Amino acid sequence: MKLSMRVVMLLTLLLAVSAAQATTRFVSAQGAGQYTTLNAAATASASGDTILVGPGTYSTGQINEASKRLTWIGAGWDQTIINLNNQLWYINTGPGANRTSIEGMRINNPGNYIFYVVNNADSITIRRCWLTSGYDQVRVASQGGRGVSVEDCILAMSSSTGSEHISLPDGNYPTVVRGCVFADIQAGNTNSAFIGGASSGTLEVYNCVFLNERLLFSLNSAGGAVIGVNNLFYDWGASPSFGTYNAGSVFDYNASSGPATLGTDTLHISVNPFVNYNTAVDFDPTASNLHLDPTNGAAFVNTGHPSLLDFTDGSRSDFGAYGGPKPLVDNGVANYPWAINVTSTPNLVGAGTPINASATGRVGPAY
Fold first, then answer.
1. Which domain holds residue 356?
2. How far are the Cα atoms of 120, 123, 126, 228 from residue 94, in angstroms, in the given order?
3. Which of 67, 182, 198, 339 has the most CB atoms within 10 Å of its CB?
4. pLDDT given for residue 240 in this prediction
């Protein structure tokens, strides 16, 4: 069908108007923004909006805004802390919710999942978040969720019984995981890092660190292949195993301290390679430092896959979450300028008198 120039111009104008209507909404626990709760901002939002969630601790119920593509940006996981209170954060109904993204937050939900991608929502990105829950931090399977990317996140499992960090989508949709830390913080766990069925799509895992995991892959051998590169597997749980996965999977430049490392160009971790990680307490977010130790971790520095280069100096990237090409960002600082602290010196003259104020801000690196 051939469109007239008038129709083309009208469609272009409508698209421009739609883009111009996108709104940035501010949430502040202290009342400095338009909203004090995430739920209020989500309800008021329209598809395409950005919701900025400032420093503070938020207690929230279920978030479920179907067919809305929203961009959520927190001030970093040390500043923006969200307690879901055993409720779920749904990313619901594509194509309206496609390309939703969440970053820069710490989200706790000890008795339930965190993110539930459902009803054909696709191309979802969860980035620079610290997620702690008793069940899946990201659940995409079973309710029609589609492709998802998880980048530069800490995924901590607080349950010891039969859960997984990420459940893969059915329908042959892909999952990409890059620069993340997977940590099981319960002794004697029976959890797995990834679970998927016969119709799961490909799983790509780059530059991740796995700590105290008993089982890495609980995948159907008929599902999509796994591609795993530049990963470190350390401090395994009881009866450790890489598990089940498609025979056509490709593993290259990985290192393990427990079961024999999968794939080619493998390394063995003989001593604790991190600046500070105590195997007696597993992952301790207040003390663990998973940067590679210059001595004990030297074998994993500048020795990653030759095609994955460190963007800062062009060398081969390191293994693990702080390797690259783009390393995990401490505290999950978003690529958005945030004022973290404002100090004022009031003039004791009276109302309406100007005061001197100074602010401390920060912004994360670009993607």
1. 71-362
2. 5, 10, 16, 29
3. 182
4. 93
Burial classification of residue 347, based on how many CB atoms lie within 10 Å of its CB (0-12 exposed, 13-18 middle, 19 or more buried): exposed
Helix, strand, coil shares of the chain, percent, nearest 5, are 10, 35, 55
Judged by DSSP in three states, 5 sits in helix
CB atoms within 10 A of CB 144: 18
* Tokens of residue 115, six digits: 């993110």
Cα–Cα dist 186/164, whole Å: 13
- Does 278 fall in a domain? yes
| CB-CB contact of 107 with 130 (8 Å) | yes
Half-sphere exposure of 360 (CA within 13 A, CB side): 4
Cα(50)–Cα(53) distance, integer angstroms: 10
What's the total number of domains in the chain? 1
Which burial class, exposed, middle or buried, applies to 160 when counting CB atoms under 10 A from its CB (0-12, 13-18, 19+)?
A: middle
Pick from 195-204, 239-248, 297-306, 340-349: least confident: 340-349
The residue that leads in pLDDT, 259 or 2, is 259
Which of 11-38 are b and which e, b meaning 16 or more Cβ less than 10 Å from the residue's Cβ? eeeeeeeeeeeeeebebbbeeebbbbeb
**Are the C-beta atoms of residues 239 and 259 closer than 8 Å to each other?**
no
Residue 105 has φ and ψ, to the nearest 5°, of -140, 155
72: pLDDT strictly greater than 50: yes
Q: Residue type for 299, please?
A: A
Sign of torsion, CA 253 257 262 266?
Answer: positive
Instruction: Specify the DSSP class assigned to residue 35.
Output: B
Task: Specify if 40 maps to a domain.
Answer: no
| Bridge partner list, 244 | 218
Q: Tokens 């997977």 sit at which residue?
A: 182
What span, in angstroms and rounded, lies between the C-alpha atoms of 91 and 207?
A: 26
